[in-house]
Specification:
With 405 residues, this protein is α+β, with helices and mostly antiparallel strands. Helix content is 35%, strand content 24%. A hairpin with a 4-residue loop joins strand 16 and strand 17.
C-alpha cells in the first residue's frame, strides 16, 4: 500500500520534540521514547531530529514503521504562513471561531482540542470494537498552548500576511488564551480515501483508460461498503459525527456539518475503514441517523459538480462541463449507499478490487500530470472542476496512454 501513497501524496517534514505527555498502549512509541512529532516553525535555534512522512490532510502525516502504516493526527500544519510556532515547551497557534467550511464550531489550528480528542477516542474505540481495521495506539498532549482568536481562515491569512514576525510573537506573548492541545496516533490499513478514488472518475475520457463497467461495479462496491459501515455505527448507537447549525443556509437548506462523507472512508485492496472520529458521540435522536446517511451521499461528493447537484453555481455561472457518465456514477453511488445501509455490501471479487485500486491510483497520477494539478491538491472539487473546464485535453492522446503494471 505504501507504493500507492508515494504516487498520491507529497512528502513533508516533522520534528520530534521532547514531550513526556505521551501515552501508548500495547505498542511502543513509533517516534522514539519521549518524542512527539510536530509540524511547525521554531522560535530560536531548532536542533530537533526530523522525520519525513507523507501528508495526510492538513494536520496529519503517515509513515511506514516496521511494515505498518502509522498515522499521526493533529500535529501541526505542514507548510505555509499559518504554521504553529514552537518556543521551547510552548506552542503558539490560532483558534478559529466560525469557519462555515469546516466541520467544527471551534478549531485549534493544527491540533485537537479536548472536545475533539474525547470524541476521537470514543469513535476510534467503537470502530475497533466493530471489527474495523484501525487501531488507536497512543496519544499525546501539550499543556503550554497559547492562541490568538480568528473568525475563520480568511481572517487568519489576511492578518498573517500583514503582521511582522516580531509583532506576531508579541501578540502571542500578550495572549491570555491558554489551552491544552492533543494529538493521536493510529495503525491504519491505508490512507487512500474513497472521495479521491471517486474524484479520478470525473475526468474527461477516463473510460479510455479504465473499463466503464468496471468503474460502475467498483463505485457500487465502494458506496455499499460505506453505507454498511455507517449502519454498523448507527446500530451500535453511535454517530460518525454530525451537528446542525442554528440556521438554514442562504440556499434555504439545513446547515449540516458532518464527518460522515466520502473523504472519511479509507480503502485498501481488501475492504473499507472509517476514519476521523473527532465529532463522534452517542446518538440522541433517530433523525440524526437519517441526516448522516444524507451527508454520506451529498456532502463533498465529487460526482456532483463542484460538490453540488448542478453544473451551475448559485449565480448561474457555469462551473463544470456536463458529464453524463459522472452523473450516472452519482446515481449509482447514492443507490448503493442505500443498499449497503439497508442490507449488506455488494460483492466484488478481491482480484477485481485489487486491480481497480491499482488502476485508479495510476490513472489519478496521469490526470494530475495532464491537468498540471499540484500533488497536495487531493480533494478540492470546485477547483478541479474549474481546471477541467479551462483545459482542453485531446482524447486521442488519452487513448495512447499505457498504464504501467
Amino acid at each position: 500500500m505504501l507504493d500507492y501513497h508515494k504516487i498520491l501524496r507529497k512528502k513533508v517534514k516533522a520534528w520530534l520534540v521532547d514531550n513526556n505527555n505521551s501515552y501508548y498502549q500495547r505498542y511502543q512509541n513509533p517516534f522514539g521514547e519521549k518524542f512527539t512529532p510536530i509540524m511547525c516553525d521554531f522560535k530560536g535555534v531548532c536542533n530537533f531530529q526530523t522525520v519525513e512522512a507523507y501528508e495526510s490532510g492538513n494536520r496529519s502525516i503517515i509513515l511506514d514503521k516496521d511494515g505498518k502504516l502509522i498515522k499521526a493526527k493533529g500535529i501541526g500544519i505542514p507548510v505555509g504562513l499559518s504554521r504553529p510556532i514552537y518556543d521551547e515547551s510552548r506552542i503558539y497557534t490560532y483558534q478559529l471561531l466560525n469557519d462555515p467550511r469546516l466541520c467544527h464550531r471551534y478549531i485549534l489550528w493544527g491540533f485537537m482540542q479536548e472536545e475533539e480528542y474525547v470524541c476521537e477516542q470514543f469513535g476510534a474505540a467503537k470502530a475497533k470494537e466493530l471489527g474495523q481495521n484501525i487501531e488507536l495506539i497512543g496519544t499525546s498532549s501539550f499543556n503550554e498552548v497559547y492562541y490568538l482568536e480568528m473568525k475563520d481562515r480568511v481572517e487568519l491569512f489576511k492578518k498573517l500576511k500583514i503582521l511582522k514576525h516580531e509583532e506576531l510573537i508579541n501578540s502571542f506573548n500578550n495572549s491570555k488564551n491558554k489551552t491544552t492541545a492533543y494529538s493521536t496516533y493510529y495503525i491504519i490499513p491505508s490512507d487512500i480515501r474513497v472521495a479521491e478514488i471517486c474524484l479520478t472518475f470525473i475526468f474527461p475520457y477516463v473510460t479510455e483508460l479504465i473499463d466503464p463497467n468496471n468503474i460502475k461495479d467498483y463505485v457500487e462496491w465502494l458506496g455499499s461498503s460505506c453505507g454498511h459501515l455507517l449502519r454498523s455505527f448507527h446500530d451500535a448507537g453511535v454517530l460518525h459525527g454530525t451537528w446542525l447549525g442554528p440556521e438554514s443556509t442562504n440556499l434555504g437548506i439545513l446547515d449540516i456539518h458532518s464527518n460522515a462523507y466520502m473523504g472519511n472512508y479509507l480503502v485498501d485492496e481488501d475492504d473499507l475503514t472509517m476514519c476521523d472520529f473527532d465529532l463522534s458521540r452517542p446518538i440522541e435522536k433517530d433523525s440524526e441517523k437519517n441526516i448522516e446517511k444524507w451527508a454520506l451521499t451529498h456532502i463533498e461528493n465529487p460526482f456532483y459538480y463542484a460538490g453540488n447537484y448542478s453544473p451551475y453555481d448559485a449565480l448561474n455561472q457555469r462551473i463544470a462541463k456536463k458529464n453524463i457518465f459522472r452523473e450516472e456514477l452519482a446515481k449509482r453511488f447514492e443507490e448503493s449507499v442505500t443498499i449497503g445501509y439497508d442490507q449488506a455490501p455488494l460483492e466484488l471479487e478481491r482480484k477485481m478490487r485489487k486491480a481497480m485500486l491499482n488502476q485508479v491510483v495510476r490513472v489519478k497520477e496521469i490526470m494530475w500530470k495532464l491537468y498540471e494539478l499540484p500533488k497536495d491538491i487531493t480533494y478540492q472539487i470546485d477547483y478541479i472542476d474549474q481546471v477541467i473546464l479551462s483545459k482542453k485535453i485531446d482524447k486521442n492522446m488519452i487513448k495512447k496512454i499505457e498504464l504501467n503494471p
